[in-house]
Amino acid sequence: MAAMKKSRLSKFKQDRLIEHFVAGMTARCAASLVGVNFKTNAYFYHRLRELISLELAHQEKEVFGGEIEVVESYSGGKRKGKRDRGAAGKIPVFVLLKRGRKVYTKIIPDARSSTLMPIIERKITPDSIIYSDG
Question: DSSP code of 85?
Answer without folding.
Answer: G
